[in-house]
Amino acid sequence: MISKYLNYIFLIFITAACQQQELQKPVFDISPEERLDPKRKEAPYPRIEIPEGVDMESARWKGIDLTPTAPVVPLSAVEEQKTFRLQPGYHLEPILAEPHIQEPAAIQFDGNGRMYVLELRTYMQDIDATGELMPAGRISRWEDTDGDGIYETGVVFLDSLVFPRFVVPFGPNTILSMESNEDHVYKFTDTDNDGKADKKELFATGLGRSGNVEHQTSFLTWAMDNWMYSTYNSRRIRWTSEGVIQESTGNPYGQWGVTQDNYGQVWFQDGAGGVPQNFNFPIVYGNFRVEGQFQEGFREPFSLVGLADFEPGMREANPDGSLNNVTGAAGNDVFRGDRLPEELVNQYFYGEPVARIVRQVRSDKSEGLTYIQNPYRDQATEFIQSTDPLFRPVDMATAPDGTLYIVDMYRGIIQEGNWTQEGSYLRTKIQQYQMDDIVGNGRIWRLTHEDHSRSTEKPRMFEESASELVQHLTHPNGWWRDKAQQLLILRQDRSVVPELEAMARNHENELARIHALWTLEGLGSLKADLVREWMQSDNPKLQIQALRAGETLYKYGDKGLEADYKEMMDESDPQVAIQALLSAYVLNFGDVENQMQTALANNQVKGVQTVAQQTLDKIAAARERAATQYTAAERVLFDEGKSIFDSYCATCHGVKGLGTPTGGAGGELLAPGFSGSARIQGHPEYAVKTLLHGLTGTIDGKEYEGVMIAMGENTDDWIASVVSYIRNDFGNQGSFISPEYVAQIREATQDRDSNYSHDALVAEVPKQLFPQDNWRVNASSTALQGVGSTRDPGYAFGFKGWKTDETQKPGMWFQIVLPTPQNLAEIQFDAGEEQFPGNYAVEVSTEGNEWREVASIKGEKGVNTVRWEDNSAVTQVRLVVKDARIQPWAMKNLRLFAR
């Protein structure tokens, strides 16, 4: 919105900083200290006063040392390099640093080996987090063009971002990303090859959160199973040639980090908890409690920094001031490269930036369960330590050159502003060492070993044929295998299916076979006979992959596999038996409870007992939750809609809402899938009109074998039930549809005597208009957001929300001015439980001089929806309070629709 941040002169500097740039080689020996006030080191060090009202005998404060102390001073990268304590033979070397990058938080590589850097340039720029949601974040892209290992050539691929959450390379010159306090993931593409994204497309919705920036979605990651996982979301998403689909999962309990091992097990990194999460079983099967999975002493860090500058305070400080219990963690990677010692391969690593360490994790297997430990605990050390208080490892990644890269945010404060407020312990310690001054830095390090050299092979996957990409599935570096698999699936080139099938059956490399299997699955070309071959293998790792990949075939209608899954429950290898039970649960076999009871009675292996019992608990809890999830009226609609769908619709649209496969080549569907469909979750008029009058022809340029016939002879209740169900199952989240709404649509379209074409239907249905920078949004009243700043009315479009600074009064208004005329038809907004408006009107205008009322309605708690029939083109719309309530007026998740 053009009104957003207009009052901030800072935008001038953003524009200057975000131009495309060809930068010279980073100079690692120029210290950021030069940017600091030199008097700071020479002046008498101030004494830190105890905040008023603090209980010095409390566990947090007791024993605190507030002696006037010399400030912490930043080192150059060359100087910082000397502070690392590594295991024998290992070295860290800088490959990129400030001023070229600032506040780096994550890295990813594209198919040509170019490194994308997520830069959180507004993160804690002072102790009060001032301006943290200013649009100054960016994603830069870097390349080593001369092969010397230093990333010297950079461009700003995407700028002016509000605290971006992740970067996902997604094919040539394309990435996925999302901003804070938003619900939408966008695809950004550089179409003219100038290094800067110039095209923005909606990719997926429903993945966002609001609130503290440390507690929002991060690290969207494409895994081996061709699904993408992120932190905080109890769902996974998947790109297909038909669109992005979604499925429910367990709670990842991750905060800043998602990665996978060589066999596709996804690991999530907790933040404040300081430990990895959900590493025993794939998250799609839900959450499981494994007693003792963190072995004794795992939570103890061995830090060389003794400033006691951590949020828990002295209660978690050793006598020397170092941290005695992990309190923060960020970034993770299972090392899968080929240019470090073999004992590191498939080992998990993560950063503990409060302790200034990088932790290596050893995984011990027993009775089908995983238990983790710090392999250096007996030596009271870590894989990497530093004596520099500013070393802040926040991400790491297996690189195309076969080594491990570590992202070092290199800064004073690493905790969000909620924990540095006036009177807090942490604020006192930060000020004691003047660490709030140290911002705007950042380094990326390469980990090497004296017995191994980095690879100088430069990826060129974007220029390679599909057959050449298949050969990379045999590469010893997991990064190459992952990227080749992803690009093959994005291309959807099935000409290589015979090569993939041969590799999956015969190749001597176990990991190559596994990637070939999942590539076939991603191309829609996996066959049941190959899955059954693997199920009968004498290799448990291949059996597990077959069970997981076979789930896709079952979901798309191959019910004959059920008997194979049940047979696998009796396998002697506990991990295979466990996987068969998990698959039976997620596929919802009719007798799954009996299968779990049988496993409990007949298999005393601890892992089997854990999974079977806790799965039974989940089934019982789901049954109880289902009884209260919806209102009584919604439950009637949902249950009746499911019954209708299973009896009629599933034949074409698939029993899991994924579509029914057809065609000999694979990858074709009889009818579109519903899972994650933007059409189904969007405006309900689309699905209602489709059912009433039918749909023929291409949909988004795709031909389907089936024809959607008109169902208008059914009752309004029947249609409302079906639409309500498909909008709220298959991972979808949409509003329920009333029979009265169907009746209104039926009456309005009663003269139609033929099926809709897709283009004609889309032209009629209101489409959501997504906020753009050239929208102007203002209001007659807006509340303060902290000291001296207002809650911008543009926040009404996100989770953060907008509200008035006083109770409602007649005549209060909220206004949107669009750059071009639109045929507006509907407004939706969430007013919360208390601060909804009284009676209010919707008014529209072409110039803003004369307004006409098109709707008047009574406000209500929760989601408010206002529709109107006067759809003439206008550029301005406003909501005006008519009868006020004794509450402020608030709105969030505001949506505007136009025909």
How would you characterize this protein structure?
The protein contains 20 helices and 39 strands. It has 899 residues and is α+β, with helices and mostly antiparallel strands. It folds into five domains: 10-167 and 303-449, no CATH class; 464-526, Alpha Horseshoe (Leucine-rich Repeat Variant); 552-628, Leucine-rich Repeat Variant, CATH 1.25.10; 634-765, Orthogonal Bundle (Cytochrome Bc1 Complex, Chain D, domain 2); 776-898, Jelly Rolls (Sandwich), CATH 2.60.120.260. Strands 1, 18, 19, 20, 21 and 22 form a six-stranded antiparallel β-sheet that branches. Strands 30, 32, 34, 37 and 39 form a five-stranded antiparallel β-sheet that branches. The protein has a five-stranded antiparallel β-sheet with strand order 31-33-38-35-36, with no helix packed on it. β7 and β8 form a beta hairpin. α6 (478-491) packs parallel to α8. The protein is globular. Pfam families: Cytochrom_C, DUF7133, F5_F8_type_C. This is Discoidin domain-containing protein. Keywords: Heme, Iron, Metal-binding.
